[in-house]
Amino acid sequence: MTQRNLFLLPGDGIGQETMAEVRKIIDYMNAEQGAGFTTDEGLVGGSAYDAHGVAITDADMEKALAADAVLFGAVGGPKWDAVPYEVRPEAGLLRLRKDLELFANLRPAICYPALAAASSLKPELVEGLDILIVRELTGGVYFGEPKTITDLGNGQKRAIDTQVYDTYEIERIASVAFELARTRKNTVCSMEKRNVMKSGVLWNQVVTETHKAKYPDVKLEHMLADAGGMQLVRAPKQFDVIVTDNLFGDMLSDVAAMLTGSLGMLPSASLGAPDAKTGKRKAMYEPVHGSAPDIAGQGIANPIAMIASFAMCLRYSFNMVKEADNLEKAIANVLDKGIRTGDIMAEGCTKVGTTEMGAAILAEF
Amino acid sequence: MTQRNLFLLPGDGIGQETMAEVRKIIDYMNAEQGAGFTTDEGLVGGSAYDAHGVAITDADMEKALAADAVLFGAVGGPKWDAVPYEVRPEAGLLRLRKDLELFANLRPAICYPALAAASSLKPELVEGLDILIVRELTGGVYFGEPKTITDLGNGQKRAIDTQVYDTYEIERIASVAFELARTRKNTVCSMEKRNVMKSGVLWNQVVTETHKAKYPDVKLEHMLADAGGMQLVRAPKQFDVIVTDNLFGDMLSDVAAMLTGSLGMLPSASLGAPDAKTGKRKAMYEPVHGSAPDIAGQGIANPIAMIASFAMCLRYSFNMVKEADNLEKAIANVLDKGIRTGDIMAEGCTKVGTTEMGAAILAEF
Ligand SMILES: CC(C)[C@H](C(=O)O)[C@@H](O)C(=O)O
Ligand SMILES: CC(C)[C@H](C(=O)O)[C@@H](O)C(=O)O
């Protein structure tokens, strides 16, 4: 029987509660469908810091590296605002991305029909919205050196961050975007600031060359990242796949997520390169939302983004396309029935907590 | 009589047409109000490149440095997409900002009541919106060194951009934000990515210290820049003054501008430090919109952002508060009367061109 090895990192805040609902789906798939998932669990973020003084231990990193896929909840919270920079909760997430070489971050911004009214945009602008943001995740200003704060004397300090991109880094993320576009509306919009940044100039060149050499059938457009932010707000449906760097991707994917009115619903996948021998990619799946410390532990968090992240895991790590489709359909059905957690509550709907929402989705699955 | 020395740089595309309408207002103020404006004019961007092979000449830079204020139109267009990086149109704008040391960029995002319906957001979320984004303009990744593309051999290139911030740069822009907040709703939100960038860590520290030392009466909040982008889209009216760095300011001010539905209407001011002797600040005023090459030369561009930029010039460079108020009121009146250029046209309104719009505002002034 196929062995499918998952490593769970629920992390902090609502990460615990929402991961619990995924665990039930895994158990169900093992019991009813013989899915053969094995799971192990570790600590990341503030919970790892509290237990071990680091944002993730080397032992847990080993397990993440060995797993077929990692499921990640969320990290951070005011409790750890004052811990040293090197061991802050986010450092665990960044180490996972870097050490697993998860260079391709896929962030779908989908507007669930049942939730279009929840968007701050006019419903006609977001109904049916389906954008895929492909964000470079292991390069740029997140990891470039030097990254320092120096005391200059005289009460002056100097902070430096460095944005670095090499040709191959841009080429491989562009290829992921073009490949995915072929499975969608066949259109890629590349965003950078070539009018100000040298990395934007190189980004633009390499995307253009990759397109010409390998994907001439895909429609390619270029947009300055600031104009891209504007266009996302003005007319988001003009986009299919957006490919952009680590920092612009951070900003733009958050704006896009908010447009959908479904922030608590959006999953993401972070993928590495296919292994030369096995063709398998390292992968981590996580909700776009954060740890929401204000509502943690109350049993009211929306588990949908975490469950939808598991659906992406089924699709991208295990090629379980039918199961992924079914799980996504189960989510849509539950929403259509008017079952809602507090964050997406609307008039005439039934308000439920985290476990009821998880159970409702499992019942439709 | 007071001498008031203006240097006009209409630039490319619709910059020419929109600046012409400001010139009429200047002539009117000289003739009817004895305002004593003298004007000189130069070339910037693509038009400077076509004439002189650079994005701005040293001679024009001298004039900009000597003037009491610079009025700037817009630069760029597809015609100059392939010119060398160092002399691309934007280089003229960036040199002006840097050599005049215009470190404080003020970008109001105001929703004119008559235009609330034009926003892509639900009207109740933007009606009465009045945000002031204070963007650092002479530091960060725009100007930090190294800023290079290097050939690594093997067909690989490496692009590097460097974000650099010193304590004094953050302190002075924070002070501008706090001072301005005192004239408004007394609230500042500072945005950075301290969870990823060292410059974000220093930014957060220095803003906090400046607040404590000099502006404890102002309400200060901190937000991660990605969350800030989200909140701008979700509930923009929560903000009063936002202070942020050069690159985040570029992105966030464009998103904020788009929210208002009034992109063609929004002005900006870029200010230097007050002169130690005279107290005067170097200053440049420019619309937030670009050169719009697609509609240039057709006489249909909206001149309101350029005229509103001149109103900011009256206010900040010449302390002509009454005149600035009147000019801004004239703009609002014309909109209330339903007079519209094509970009803001709505049912039941009267569509006019650039010169008619300029004339209508002058008639109300
Ligand atoms: C938590 C933080 C380090 C992270 C990032 O900036 O990448 C988050 O904002 C995200 O988008 O996943
Ligand atoms: C034209 C460009 C260099 C400029 C910038 O990036 O600052 C523009 O986008 C702006 O916001 O004024």
Automatic annotation (TrEMBL), chains A, B:
Family note: Belongs to the isocitrate and isopropylmalate dehydrogenases family. LeuB type 1 subfamily.
Recorded metabolic or biological pathway in which this protein acts: Amino-acid biosynthesis; L-leucine biosynthesis; L-leucine from 3-methyl-2-oxobutanoate: step 3/4
UniProt cofactor note: Binds 1 Mg(2+) or Mn(2+) ion per subunit.
Alphabetical list of InterPro entries matching this protein: IsoCit/isopropylmalate_DH_CS (IPR019818), IsoPropMal-DH-like_dom (IPR024084), Isopropylmalate_DH (IPR004429)
Positions bound to NAD(+): 77-90, 290-302
Catalytic activity: (2R,3S)-3-isopropylmalate + NAD(+) = 4-methyl-2-oxopentanoate + CO2 + NADH
Free-text function comment from the UniProt entry: Catalyzes the oxidation of 3-carboxy-2-hydroxy-4-methylpentanoate (3-isopropylmalate) to 3-carboxy-4-methyl-2-oxopentanoate. The product decarboxylates to 4-methyl-2 oxopentanoate.
EC top class, as a word: oxidoreductase
Cofactor(s) demanded: Mn(2+); Mg(2+)
Binding site for substrate: R97, R107, R135, D226
Subunit structure and binding partners: Homodimer.
EC numbers for this chain: 1.1.1.85
MF terms in GO: 3-isopropylmalate dehydrogenase activity; magnesium ion binding; NAD binding
UniProt keyword 4Fe-4S present: no
HAMAP family recorded: LeuB_type1
Pfam families: Iso_dh
Entry keyword set: Amino-acid biosynthesis, Branched-chain amino acid biosynthesis, Cytoplasm, Leucine biosynthesis, Magnesium, Manganese, Metal-binding, NAD, Oxidoreductase
Protein name per Swiss-Prot or TrEMBL: 3-isopropylmalate dehydrogenase
Binding-site list for Mg(2+): D226, D250, D254
Gene Ontology terms: biological process: L-leucine biosynthetic process
Keyword Acyltransferase attached: no
Residues covered by the Isopropylmalate dehydrogenase-like domain: 5-361
Site, Important for catalysis: residue positions: Y142, K193
